[in-house]
Structure formats: structure tokens, C-alpha cells
Design a protein that fits this description.
- By secondary structure, this protein is an alpha/beta fold.
- It has a domain of about 150 residues: nicotinate phosphoribosyltransferase (Alpha-Beta Barrel), CATH 3.20.140.10.
- Helices cover about 35% and strands about 15% of the residues.
- The longest helix is centred in the last third of the chain and has 18 residues.
């Protein structure tokens, strides 16, 4: 049976959202609560491409059900347009970050699922998903794959899709419901929302370092220390600052550089700030960026205590082969792996939504590359 056929409505929402939430949002809220960090943020939800607007009501219902935004602390706006184009705001959520940081996985999944089905995309059945991850596992070889796709699919499908991905070769999943099939809890690193929330208190220059320190302070020691380092497009600078903090203790860095940015110290592709079809240079997570960071870590004497974890379209088989080939060459040249793990989200083709903070405490504030300085609220309607 096609997984897209098995749908539940918001009337049958589970009692708790936590099993269906990416683990890093659960951990982020604990850190924010422990530190008393709770800025008023504005979050923009958008998709790429163009199509008919559907799924807004069910998406908003997630926020109504599990957040306390209705107590007067927040606002929810939805587009009043019948069609959307790339980066058009579909939903704007405003409120204290602690109120809804844990809900991003579920509401993005519900909206992405609705837009995908309306656009004619078929959600792959378990056997197709298993085969996709089997091929990827074969390509990546001894590099472990973690399934990070919960936000791309309706929450009711997460258990089945994660199970198929793990049977195909993934070693773990990002949600508890997904990891339950192997008797484990979900895994994760650090999201941009946590780094930005910390930055609102401590400043952007030290936010990534401070986030790593707070994660280290509040999370059990058995949880791997993996720091997201692309929020402010200072992948090299922030990685070295974090490495200095950890010293000889084992830690790792996640690179998730968005398609709007060239990684710190990177090169243009053909003289332009665009993606390189060979993944060598240009925008996004590139071979150049990974090599530059790994070489700096080796040169600074942290080769044995650090690893690199890659996300952002690492499920593209062409990209996977390019990175594995380069990894093999890098090992021969240096004796060290270029990267030690990948996170893969897209188990099938579809319309996948993104949520980005664009404003904190009433002022523009975002990760580099996703700045929004003005929203045309005449094209939006307030629903809360």
C-alpha cells in the first residue's frame, strides 16, 4: 500500500507530540527552559517551487493543539493567496520560542504532505524507501546514515517510513517513534532555532560556541556532542572556537550550509554565487567546504578528537558518490576521513517545507542567507 493512502486527520491527533518530534527540538526546549531563554520570535514557513495552497487548516491545528499560543502570547497568520511561489510565506508564527519550538517537525510534515499530494507526488511505499536507503548504504559504505526525514511527511507515516529507512541501511532515526523499531530513542544534533535563540541573548559572534557549551552543560554525557556550525556562515571560525572549548574531548560538527550561501572561505562557481552540479564549489554543502574545515582541524591538532557530520541533500545519489569518492582520496592523502556520518531527510520526491526564524523581539534576526526584512501582511490573514 502506498503510504500516502494512510492518512489521519487532525481530529485524531495523538495525546502528545513528543514521539513524533525531531529529538533536537525536545533537547533544545530543555536547554532554553534551564537557561531562562525565551525570546519572542517570528517564524516563516515556506516551500520551494509553485503550486496550489492546501493543508493550512490542519497545519494550524497542530499549533493550536500543542502550544499555548492561544493564551494571548502569540499570533498565527496564513496566506490568503490560492497559489504560492518559492519562499512565499505560507504561515507566519509569532510567540515565545519555548511555546512552539517542539512543534516544527509535526506542522511542517502535515503541510509538506498536503502540498506534495496536491502536486501529484506519490509517497513511496516501504519497499521503495527500503531500496533507496539500501542503494545509499551501498554507496556510503562504512559511513553511517541517520534518517532525518520526519519533517517531510505526515506524522502518522513517520513510524513506517523510518522503519523502512532503517531496514534499508540507516542506523538511526530522529524521532522516538521512528527509532522505536530498533528499540532506541531518536537522535539529533542542534537546530538553527536554538542557535538563534541563544544568539538573541549572547550575540551572534559567540552564539555557536555558547550553544555548544549549553548543550554540553545540560545534556547527559552519553549524548554525542555535535554542533551545528553554519547558522552565521562562519563554518570554519565557529568550528575552531567550539573545538578550543572541547579540547581533547570527542566532539563533531554538522554542516548544513543552505543553498543561498557559500561556506566560509569557499569559492564561487563559474564566477557566480550558485550551486555547482559537481558539488565541488559554490553554494550549499560542498566538497571544498568539507575539505577546508577538515584540514583546518587537522592542522590545529584536533584531527583525532573531531568528526564532521553532513546534512542537506545527502540523499542525492550523485552527490553521495561525489562525496564518497573524495572521502576515499582524502583518507589516502591524510590518513583521516573527510566526514564520518550523514543525515538524510528526503525518502521520496515531494514538496518539502522549511521554517526559519526571521525576527526576534521585533527586529530582523535570522540565519545568514534567510533574511526577511518585510512581510506583506495584506496577503495574509490572522487566524490566531
Amino acid at each position: 500500500m502506498d503510504l500516502g493512502e494512510k492518512m489521519t486527520t487532525t481530529k485524531k491527533l495523538p495525546k502528545s507530540h513528543t514521539e513524533y518530534t525531531d529529538k533536537y527540538f525536545i533537547r533544545s526546549k530543555k536547554i532554553l527552559e534551564a537557561e531562562g531563554i525565551n525570546p519572542q520570535v517570528s517564524m516563516r514557513v515556506f516551500a520551494r517551487g509553485e503550486g496550489n495552497v492546501v493543508g493550512l487548516e490542519d497545519t494550524v491545528e497542530i499549533l493550536r493543539e500543542y502550544s499555548d499560543l492561544e493564551n494571548g502570547s502569540g499570533e498565527i497568520w496564513t496566506t490568503s493567496q490560492k497559489r504560492y511561489a518559492t519562499k512565499d510565506p505560507l504561515i507566519i508564527v509569532k510567540g515565545p520560542i519555548q511555546s512552539f519550538i517542539e512543534l516544527e517537525t509535526m506542522y511542517l510534515g502535515v503541510l509538506s504532505n498536503a502540498l506534495s499530494k496536491n502536486a501529484g507526488h506519490e509517497l513511496s511505499n516501504p519497499e521503495v524507501i527500503k531500496e533507496k536507503f539500501r542503494r545509499l548504504s551501498e554507496i556510503y559504505g562504512d559511513v553511517p546514515i541517520t534518517y532525518f526525514g520526519a519533517r517531510h511527511y505526515h506524522w502518522s507515516l513517520d513510524k513506517q517510513i523510518a522503519k523502512a529507512a532503517i531496514e534499508g541501511g540507516a542506523v538511526q532515526a530522529s524521532t522516538d517513534i521512528g527509532a522505536k523499531c530498533i528499540g532506541k530513542e531518536g537522535v539529533g544534533t542542534i537546530p538553527h532555532a536554538l542557535v538563534l535563540s541563544v544568539a538573541s541573548k549572547y550575540g551572534k559572534d559567540v552564539a555557536t560556541l555558547k550553544t555548544a557549551q549549553l548543550f554540553d552543560k545540560h545534556m547527559p554525557q552519553e549524548i554525542p556532542r555535535v554542533t551545528l556550525v553554519d547558522t552565521f556562515n562562519r563554518e570554519l571560525t565557529d568550528s575552531l572556537m567550539v573545538t578550543d572549548y572541547f579540547g581533547e574531548r570527542k566532539n563533531a560538527f554538522r554542516i548544513d550550509t543552505c543553498g543561498e550561501n557559500i561556506g566560509e572561505g569557499g569559492s564561487l562557481y563559474g564566477g557566480r554565487k550558485i550551486k555547482d552540479p559537481s558539488y565541488k564549489v559554490g553554494t550549499g554543502v560542498t566538497l571544498e567546504l568539507a575539505k577546508n574545515l577538515r584540514m583546518r582541524l587537522i592542522q590545529e591538532g584536533f584531527a583525532d578528537s573531531t568528526d564532521i557530520f553532513l546534512t542537506s541533500r545527502m540523499g542525492d545519489e550523485k552527490k553521495a558518490r561525489a562525496f564518497v569518492k573524495t572521502n576515499d582520496m582524502f583518507r589516502k592523502q591524510t590518513g583521516y576521513s573527510l566526514f564520518s556520518g550523514v543525515g538524510i531527510g528526503e525518502a521520496s520526491k515531494g514538496v518539502f517545507c522549511t521554517a526559519d526564524i526571521f525576527e526576534i523581539n521585533g527586529k530582523p534576526f535570522s540565519k545568514v542567507g534567510r533574511e526577511v526584512y518585510e512581510i506583506d501582511y495584506t496577503k495574509m490573514r490572522r487566524v490566531l
